[in-house]
Amino acid sequence: MANDSNQQEKITGRCYCGAKSLRASSEPLSVVYCHCSDCKRVTGAPLAAFAGFSEAILTISPDPGPPCSHHPGVDRWFCKDCGSPLAARYDYLPGQVYVPLGLLDQADKLQPSMHCHAASTYAWLHLADGLPRQQNSGRDALLSDEPAR
Predict the structure, then answer these.
(1) What is the C-alpha to C-alpha distance for residues 81 and 21, in angstroms, rounded to an integer?
(2) pLDDT of the chain along its 149 residues, tens only?
(3) 69-88 burial, b if ≥16 CB within 10 A, otherwise e?
(4) pTM, rounded to two decimals
């Protein structure tokens, strides 16, 4: 994640208590829903929504410290004061970092473009949004030159 405090702020956000702030100097590469069990557990919600940024343009300050990892290939950062999930990095999506959409001040303007891990959607959850459903991670779509927005 970037450490340049002079970058132009395009996307901003913060954790629940305000101890950590987030800034990105450009729009996200992708905005997606995730139905995997790991994301549901870490967010406490029946599905998660994330904005994916290039690692080079996202700053979390003050520095959140080392990541937490309970699954191989997944690093997550949390606010040590309030416990908010701040960001996640996945080995299968190199150079990208994913921020929970609810932390971002501009979340109402960042519409998800697809559902990832749709095979893990709860049977009682019915979203008729017409978005593409990737049955697995959606890796290929998320790494394409022009991710769906």
Answers:
(1) 13
(2) 554 444 445 999 999 999 999 999 999 999 999 999 999 999 999 999 999 999 999 999 999 999 998 888 999 999 999 999 999 999 999 999 999 999 999 999 999 999 999 999 999 999 999 999 999 988 888 987 554 44
(3) eeeeebebbbbeeeebbbbb
(4) 0.87
